Amino acid sequence: MKNKSLLSRFLIWRVKNIKERQFVLILSFLVGVVSGLAALVLKNTIHFTHHFLTHRLHVESANLLYLAYPAVGILLTVLFVKFFVKDNIGHGVSRILYAISKKNSLIKSHNNYSSVLASTLTIGFGGSVGAEAPVVLTGASIGSNLGRMFHMNQKIITLMVGCGAAGAIGGIFKAPMAGMVFTLEVLMLDLTMASLIPLLISSITGASIAYFFMGKGVLLSYDVTEPFVIGNFPYYILLGVFAGLVSLYFTRFSMYLEGQFDRITNCYRKMMVGGILLGILIFLFPPLYGEGYTTIQALLDGNHTHLVNNSIFYFLKDNYWLLLGYVVLILGFKVIASTVTTGSGGVGGIFAPSLFLGGVSGFFVARFINGFNFVKLSESNFTLIGMAGMMAGVMHAPLTAIFLIVEITGGYELFIPIMVTATIAYLTIMYFEPHSIYTKRLAKRGELITHNKDKAVLTLMKLGKVIETDLKKVSPDATLGELVKIISHSQRNIFPVVDEDDKLLGIVLLDDIRHIMFNPEMYEETYVRNLMIMPPAILDANAPMEKVMRRFEETGAWNLPVTQDEKYLGFVSKAKIFNVYRRVLVHFSDE
C-alpha cells in the first residue's frame, strides 16, 4: 500500500511538473537501459552455458554428447514453462505483434524474465535457434509494463513496446540503427518524430549498455580484404534470388513442421520426439548446435573446415565437391533443426537461424561458382552478403537486414552489394509469399493489424461509441396515421419497428411511404407491420469494427440497426463511423 501511495504521488507530481512528451523521452531511456541489460544477461548466460558444455570436445571426431544435450535443454525448458511460467512464451516477435493487434499492447509481466531463462536452457544446451526473439519479447514486455505502471495511454504503451524491442536489438547486436529500423519495418510502428526520437533513444541506450560492459568488439568481426567489384554484380543478384528461394523454403517448411508438432497433444511425447530428432541432427551436423555464430565467423575468416569439426564427416574437409554436398545438407536440415527446437517446446527465435542460413548460402554460391574456374569470388564476402539476403527474405525486412549486417560485421565497404542482394531476396520471396514468418501465423487467423493502418484504427474504435439512439421507435400495430405523427416529430428518415419486448422486427423507410403518407384515407386501414421491411443486415453489439465495416461494404447500406440478444439498441451510420475514424486516426498518428 505504501509503494502504491508513493507511485500515486509521483504520478500526480509528474503530471504537474513534466510534460507528457518529455516524460516519454525519459521513459524511453529507462526502457533502453533495462532492455540492454536484459540482452547482456541473456547473451552471456548462453555463451557460458555453451562453453561449459562443449569446450572439452575433440574437433576431429564425433561426440555422443551431442545426442543428449539438446534433449536435456528442451526437457528443462518444458518443465520451466509448464510448472513455473504456465503460459506460452514461444514465437517472441509474433507474440508482440499479437499483443499490439489484439491486447492493446499489454504483455504479461512474467515475460520480463521468463523468455530469458527459457531460451538460455534451450540454446545453451544446443537448441538450433536464436536468442534475439526471446530478448526482443523481454524488451517489449519491459516497455509495456513500465508504460502500464506509469498509467500511460494505449498509444504510448505501444511506443514503449517498440522502444523495448529496439533497445533489446541494439543491446544484443550492438546495432542501434538496426534496432530502430526493426521496430519500424517489422513491428510497423509509425514513422513520425513522436515515435522516431524515443526509438532512437532506446536503441542507442541498449547498444551503449552492451559497449560499456563488453567493449567495442562486434558480434561477427570481419575485415574486407577483397573490395566490391562492379563486375560481380550478376552474382550478387544470383545470390539474392537463391537467398529468396531458401527463405521461401524456410518459411513454408517450418510452418508445415510446426503444424505436424501441433498435432502431438502430449507435451512430453512432443518433447521426446523433438529432443531425439534434434540430437541426431546435431550429432550428424554439429554446425546446427546452438545459434551458429561460431560457424559464421569461421566462414568469414575463410576457415571452411570448421563445418565438419566434431563430425563423422570430418574426412570431407579436403574434398571440394563432396564438402559442397555436405553444405547443401546443412542448409536443408537447419530449417528442420530450428523448427524441431521450438515445435518440441524449446524457446528461441529465427534471427540467428536466418543469419546462419544466409552465411552458409553465400558461402555455397561463391564456392559453387568458383569450382568452374571462370571467375574468382570472395567466399568470405559472399558469406557476409548472404546473411543480409536471407534475413531480408525470411523477415520481409530488407532495411533491417542491411543495417544489421553492416553494423554487426563492420562491412561498410560492401554496402552496395549488401543492398542489392537484400533487395533481390526480398522481391523474390514477395512474389511467392506476402507474409513474413512472423506475420503468417497471425494473418491466417485474421489477427494481424500492425501492418494495416485501417485495421489498427478500427481496432481502437468500439461499436458502442458510434450507436445512434435518436431514431423514433414504432410498434408493428401502429396505424399509418400514428406513424405520420411520429414522422412529424422526427429528424430521421428511418424508423425501427419493435415489439413490446423491444425486439427488432423490421424498419420503415420514409422514402418507401412518401407516396401514401399524405393520403388520409389510408391512415386508419394501413398498419406499420404491412409497411415495414427487413434491413439488409443486423449488427451485433459485440461485433468488432472491422466486421461492421465489412457488413457495410457487403450490403451497400449507409445505416444498419444494432441489437444485443435480439433487443434493439440503435442504429449505426457509415457517416458517423467515418467521422470517428478520422478523429481516432489523428490521435493514432499525431506528432
Automatic annotation (TrEMBL):
| Domain CBS: from-to ranges | 467-525, 532-591
Q: How does it sit in the membrane?
A: Multi-pass membrane protein
InterPro entries linked: CBS_dom, CBS_dom_sf, Cl-channel_core, ClC, ClC-type_chloride_channel
What GO cellular component is one of the record's annotations? chloride channel complex
Membrane-spanning segments: 21-42, 62-85, 113-136, 156-175, 187-213, 233-250, 271-289, 320-337, 349-370, 382-405, 412-432
Instruction: Output the Gene Ontology terms for molecular function.
Output: chloride channel activity
- Note whether Transmembrane occurs among the keywords: yes
Q: Which domain of life is it from?
A: Bacteria
List the subcellular locations: Membrane
Fetch the SMART domains from UniProt. CBS
Q: Does the keyword Ligase apply?
A: no
Q: Name where it mostly resides.
A: membrane
Keywords for the protein's UniProt record, in alphabetical order: CBS domain, Chloride, Chloride channel, Ion channel, Ion transport, Membrane, Transmembrane, Transmembrane helix, Transport
Pfam families on file: CBS, Voltage_CLC
The entry's protein name is CIC family chloride channel protein
Species of provenance: Marinifilum flexuosum
Upper classification of the source organism reads: Bacteria, Pseudomonadati, Bacteroidota, Bacteroidia, Marinilabiliales
